[in-house]
Design goal:
mainly beta, globular, two-stranded antiparallel ribbon, five-stranded mixed β-sheet, Ubiquitin-like (UB roll), 100 residues, 12% helix
Length: 100
């Protein structure tokens, strides 16, 4: 029985840059594969360097408790290094740059 990897659309605001976000990859990695560099350091959800706001969409975490407070989660903050898309997403990452 084969599994399919759902693919979603992701947009980095305020630039409007778009990239494909497979459900099997964290947003940080999917962005990098598409030539976009998001702030990062630890890549495991603890340092908070990549913290940004999820403007719309849904994400999930494969780790028990990513480094966000309950209040930050309620305010829409996510950690793209550990956040996997469950729908099309829009993220606000003002420090994002194009690679190269």
């Amino acid at each position: 029985m084969g599994t399919t990897d759902s693919r979603f659309s992701a947009v980095i605001e305020p630039k409007g840059w778009k990239f494909e976000a497979p459900e099997s990859l964290p947003l940080l990695e999917a962005a990098a594969l598409s030539g976009f560099v998001l702030p990062s350091s630890c890549r495991n959800g603890t340092c908070r360097t990549c913290m940004c706001r999820l403007v719309s969409g849904r994400v999930r975490y494969n780790i028990e408790w990513p480094g966000l407070s309950a209040e930050e989660k309620e305010e829409g903050f996510i950690l793209p290094c550990a956040a996997y898309p469950e729908s099309d997403v829009i993220i606000d990452v003002r420090q994002a740059v194009k690679a190269g």
